[in-house]
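Notebook entry, structure prediction.
Reason for the run: the old model in the group folder had no record of what sequence produced it. Starting over properly, with the input documented here first.
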Amino acid sequence: MDFEPGDIVQLKSGGPFMTIEKVGKDAMTEQDTVWCTWFEKVGNRQELKRETFSPVTLVKRNTPVTSTFAVRTQRG
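New structure, fully documented this time:
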């Protein structure tokens, strides 16, 4: 397997960009497995999703991740 935790991947057939959480053998099937996480918009919020995939269904993506957020600090 050419995947490592932290890699950004996508299904070869399309879909959301996902982050690899873990790679290894599935305990029940002993097949090579990739554990992925991603966020999916549900209504007005983002929901964390997790799923396992066979490595042959995934392709690495070198897409820069862009997001915006603000950190507020109180000064006393």
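Summary: The beta strands are 8-11, 14-25, 32-42, 45-53, 58-60.
The old model has been moved to the deprecated folder.
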